[in-house]
Amino acid sequence: MKLALACIFCFLTYGCGMQELAVDNADRLLSYQITRRLPLTSKQTDLLKKDIKRFLIQEKSVAQELLPVIDQIDLTGPDKLAASYQKLQEFYARIASDFSELIATHMAPLDRKQREEMFETLEDENRKLLKKGKEERLEDIEESFIRLLGPLSGPQKKIVRSYEDYYHARAQQRVERRAKLQQEIKEIFKVDRSDKRKTQLSQAFGSFQKVALEGNKTLEIIQKIAPTLSKKQREHFRTQVSTVKEILKYYLTVDY
Fold it and tell me: Among candidates 159, 176, 180, 165, which has minimal Cα distance to 225?
């Protein structure tokens, strides 16, 4: 459910004005991304839009709690870094759980034709994910570190690239998890118990998210890179953290 996080925390690659514009339009961005996957009727879309607004208002309390946690992010020691990472992961889990409830609510009433179209879209996404080569995936990972830390040194790139097999395996596992989730959703819809579908779908999403976090080596990679950071990279990181804080603060002021 990274979609929800992307809209709440916005896009660090944008300029300040564009970041604020994205936050202003977070409800529209979420609606667009969801309806790309869920082929809703106009009436269902109207209901979704209302629920998205409620979701964005509800998550403001989470964003408020997140602000001091962001302030505490410390790259100077592995234990401090691990503590901050754990807290951020817990916030991610909370937002993902809330977002799963939103998705389950609007997926449950889909009729047969809508479900067939939804599964076709999801399977097409799986095929596109599998097409991405190892080098392209490595370049994407490097770019994410560059956005966070600034240009990487040779040794830092070596650390990132030493996890090439891990990145490839995770990508494969992601598609496998998605396919398994889609099959679980199909099984849920096979049983004529519409009153249970929302709960069953939410549980399926929850299991999917829990498994997705298992075996994640992101913290391990960051802990290896952190001691090698230059003063300029640390300053770049702090600037990025400050930017996230400003985006969150602005989000708290927006009236959806």
Answer: 159
CA 225 to chain centre: 23
Average pLDDT over residues 22-48: 93
Q: Which amino acid is at 88?
A: L
Picking from 145, 215, 218, the residue whose alpha carbon sits closest to that of residue 177 is 215
Tens digits of per-residue pLDDT, 188-236?
A: 998 866 778 999 999 999 999 888 888 889 999 999 999 999 999 999 9
As a whole number of angstroms, the distance between CA 10 and CA 51 comes to 20
Q: DSSP letters along the chain, please?
A: -HHHHHHHH--TTS-HHHHHHHHHTHHHHHHHHHHHHS---HHHHHHHHHHHHHHHHHTHHHHHHHHHHHHT---S-HHHHHHHHHHHHHHHHHHHHHHHHHHHHHHTT--HHHHHHHHHHHHHHHHHHHH--HHHHHHHHHHHHHHHHSSPPHHHHHHHHTTHHHHHHHHHHHHHHHHHHHHHHHHHHHSS-HHHHHHHHHHHHHHHHHHHHTT--HHHHHHHHGGG--HHHHHHHHHHHHHHHHHHHHHHH---
Provide, rounded to the nearest whole percent, the portion of the chain with pLDDT above 90: 58
**What's the rounded Cα separation, in Å, for the pair 44 and 110?**
9
* Residue listed under structure tokens 């399977």: 123
> Minimal CA–CA distance to 219: which of 85, 99, 97?
85
